[in-house]
Amino acid sequence: MNAAMPQQRPAPFERAAIIAVGSELLTPLRIDTNSLYITEQLNTLGIEVVFKGVVGDDRAELAHLVRSALERAGLIVLCGGLGPTDDDVTREVVADVLQRKLHERQEITERLRQRFAARGWQMPEINRRQAMVPEGADPIDNPNGTAPGLWIEHGDRVVLLLPGPPRELKPMLRGLVESRLQSRAAMTTLRRRIIRITGRTESHTEEAVQPLYAAWAAAAVPISATILAAFGQIELHLSARAETPEAAESALDRAAEQVRAVLGRDAYSTDGRALEEVVGDLLLARGWRIGVAESCTGGLITSRLTDVAGSSRYVDRSVVSYSNDAKTEMLGVPAALIAEHGAVSEPVAVAMAEGIRVSARLEVGIGVTGIAGPGGGTPEKPVGTVCVAVITPEASRVRTVRFMGEREQDKFQASQAALDMVRRMIATS
Amino acid sequence: MNAAMPQQRPAPFERAAIIAVGSELLTPLRIDTNSLYITEQLNTLGIEVVFKGVVGDDRAELAHLVRSALERAGLIVLCGGLGPTDDDVTREVVADVLQRKLHERQEITERLRQRFAARGWQMPEINRRQAMVPEGADPIDNPNGTAPGLWIEHGDRVVLLLPGPPRELKPMLRGLVESRLQSRAAMTTLRRRIIRITGRTESHTEEAVQPLYAAWAAAAVPISATILAAFGQIELHLSARAETPEAAESALDRAAEQVRAVLGRDAYSTDGRALEEVVGDLLLARGWRIGVAESCTGGLITSRLTDVAGSSRYVDRSVVSYSNDAKTEMLGVPAALIAEHGAVSEPVAVAMAEGIRVSARLEVGIGVTGIAGPGGGTPEKPVGTVCVAVITPEASRVRTVRFMGEREQDKFQASQAALDMVRRMIATS
Predict the structure, then answer these.
(1) Count of domains for chain A
(2) What is the rounded average pLDDT of the residues A132-147?
(3) pLDDT in tens, A29-80
């Protein structure tokens, strides 16, 4: 305490709790994913999430949880339950726990009426509930929906109510992170970095990276690391807490550089880019265009490539040749080749890659053929067998891999294998 | 209380809380999904989940949460934090909260040593922590890993500790559901059903279905309902609690039938099937094969169709014609047509659908062309504009829609619009 200080800066937030409200989130069918985005945003301000909870549209349970969170965190973020109907209880429960009355704000009601009127509708009276604001709370404008957010200061705590739909929640939270949340955050920042790795198991990755850990822990800006196995890749998650974003980022840059030195080309991304983005950037750098002849992946490889904005600069065309006729007619794969080796074979994969590449006058062709399952396997070629071929102006490669997952998992892993083969063949450094 | 009862059956569980333990689950990068499986299994016994929580490897937070859960639920399921290392705190914290001492069980240590020995390794001494069992607790064998589960009775409560890895957790829980959990569950079962809907907003669905609610609530087997908006569709979730699974299922059957009568063809699935499965079944019933000419969806429609096992019976081939040349060369779309109307236009979508259908001698052709964004929009054709055409032996249809999401969301919505158009055109009832 310093009595000479002209004005007291409120205690900074260091610990946050996130509460998701909605009975559907307690069924086997839905999961709260908003908390991931909220965590990411709070972490940029150095605010750590110490607890996440999910409750249904149940006043008693929600009240219990809000009370409990108020004991343990400086910032409590609630999402969901701000709709106009009876089972939207968040506003009322929070007002009750904080012992504040709710009052209708005429300017919000008016804005809601205009919102409905702009669509030629009359506002249902029930929507007036969304204009109810606890005493002393600040409503937060919601350009993408009817439910305003609410910012409520309670002693040195802040309770923040956000609407559940991601397209309403995200811009609202982003705005707060750049304004009121930032000014209440601690003077440190927590930054994370994902390094994505192919061609190694979890333990081979650990073996290679572990010697770096001791120096990371002892550094001026300490780095902590976790290794996680995901489908078709390994992820190394690094985090750094520092006084400025720049200090945290540059410590992460250095650590990522060390990892790259140790793992070489197996570390395909140190900046969060997905494999399809890395491949796209490599194609752009070469000025090459790509075409894909897909069988068992059913269009997934091309769909992933075209998930990237600007991919029309290098994706020209693709063919999903599910039937043998399609392979012959659209890609020029000789029927005799299919008869001799089978549709799932390395020669057919190569002919597919060459077929799309030559017919479309492209630099890079991919051919993928396999047995997606659950039916169609044989003792020699069991379900999950996939042949992948890639042809570039410089080289041609083909390999057979076998996946052991379920249909959709195998499709993803096959797409991962194909994109990774392209990456390794055209990477220049 | 009935003193004449020969033995007291313990109070049945009706309410469960699930606690996931692990610091990685409080980052933006990982989410607890075990709770979905746990919920599904508990629901089959009529046990409802009233609360889910996530905490890091933090003794104080976990202890707080366990205490709080003990006040509110008959069954507390914890998962994760049973490993051998220092940051695996679940065993110790639970023993502490329940005020029980931990003792090493020699038979568990012995089993762990054998497990390691079978792989030619010596057990690290640290693994003895996994043989520590709170007084009065029953260890549960884990054939797929080193961490045994723990079943702890505490008054009329049960605290259940499960390992975090799904391949260890799932068989362990399944075993309990068939034995100890079943015998402690209420004599009811809770079953759920999802009805999937297109062509209506959330509120139009509510309007149509609401008149059914009163009768559902008053029925011998009451049905409760929730409406949820998902991308490109609306979901109506029904749940029924009954004394037998058969009674619950037949009440859900009746309710689903009523919904179908009210919503007509807008309710595309009352049995959990995804849209691509419904379309596949309709194609099979007609004996028709399908081909897709995709531009902005980049292969996603075909990838969704081929996510379904057995789809090779009706998916023949598809083309991703990202460039104008590809549309002309592979689908025979006249260059003049593109020049006159633009690549994103209804005539081009129709020509694409007809191109794939005729060249491949298929019954059904889809053509989709649009502006995926974020670049490429114009005032007349803004980002998100998509033209969808479907041609069958019976009819031809084309429409222009506009989506307002981000690139991947628009791709999904466009694929949804195309598949739904096919469904409506070939549905016979």
Answers:
(1) 3
(2) 93
(3) 788 999 999 998 898 888 899 999 999 999 999 999 999 999 999 999 999 9
pLDDT at B1: 33
Closest by CA position to A189, among listed A42, A74, A50: A42
The CA distances from residue A33 to A29, A41, A263, B28, B164, in Å, are 13, 13, 32, 9, 19
Q: Report if residue A394 sits inside a domain.
A: yes
Partner residue facing B322 (CB), from A24, A33, A306? A306
A101 residue type, one letter: K
The Cα of A202 is separated from the nearest Cα of chain B by a number of Å equal to: 15
- In this structure, is residue B7 part of a structural domain? no
CA distance A375 to chain B (A): 8
pLDDT tens digits, B327-363: 999 999 999 999 999 999 999 999 999 999 999 999 9
Residues B154 and B301 in one domain: no
Of B218, B235, B269, at which residue does a domain stop?
A: B269
A38 and A147 together in one domain:
yes
Domain residues for the domain of A161 are 15-184
Instruction: Count CA atoms closer than 13 A to A310's CA, side-chain side.
Output: 8
**For residue B5, what pLDDT is reported?**
39
Q: Which residue of A has its CA nearest to B64?
A: A68
Closest CA–CA distance from residue A412 to any residue of chain B (Å): 10
From A324, which residue of chain B is nearest by alpha-carbon distance? B316
Which residue, among B14, B23, B24, has the nearest Cα to B62 in the 3D structure?
Answer: B23
Q: How far is B96 from chain A (nearest CA, A)?
A: 20
Q: Does A358 share its domain with A250?
A: no
Which residues of A fall within a CB distance of 8 Å from B31? 31-33, 35-36
Q: Confirm if A209 and A259 have CB atoms less than 8 A apart.
A: yes
**Mutation site, B33, B37, B41, B51, interface A, largest A CB count within 10 A:** B51
- Which CATH number characterizes residue A328's domain? 3.90.950.20
Examine residue A325 and state whether it is found in any structural domain, yes or no. yes
Report the distance separating Cα B282 and Cα B285, nearest Å: 5
State whether B418 and B283 are in the same domain: yes
Torsion of CA A409, A412, A414, A416, to 10 degrees: -130
Nearest CA in chain B to A376: B310
Could you say which of B184, B209, B233 is where a domain stops? B184
Is the CB of A51 less than 8 angstroms away from the CB of B48?
no
The edge-to-edge listing of strands for the beta sheet with A290-294 is A396-402, A385-391, A364-370, A290-294, A315-321, B315-321, B290-294, B364-370, B385-391, B396-402
Is the interface score ipTM higher than 0.90?
Answer: no
Residues A360, B27: C-beta atoms closer than 8 Å: no
How many CB pairs (< 8 A) connect A and B?
Answer: 227
- Span A75-93, pLDDT tens digits: 999 999 998 887 889 999 9
Residues A51 and B54: beta-carbon distance below 8 Å: yes
Residue numbers in A near B321 (CB within 8 A): 317
pLDDT digits (tens, 9 = 90+) for B119-168: 788 888 888 999 999 999 999 999 888 899 999 999 999 999 999 988 89
Which chain A residue's Cα is nearest to B59? A50
If asked whether residues A204 and A136 sit together in one domain, one would say no
**CATH number, domain at A113?**
3.40.980.10
Taking contacts as CB-CB distances below 8 angstroms, the residues of chain A near B229 are: 165
Same domain membership, residue B193 and residue B177: no
B29, B48, B317 ranked by CB distance to A326: nearest: B317
Answer yes or no: do B239 and B171 share one domain. Answer: no
Residue A8 in domain: no
SS3 of residue B208 by DSSP: helix
Q: pLDDT exceeding 70 applies to what percent of chain B?
A: 97
Which of B318, B404, B419 is the best residue to mutate to test the A interface, defined by the most A CB atoms within 10 Å of its own CB?
A: B318
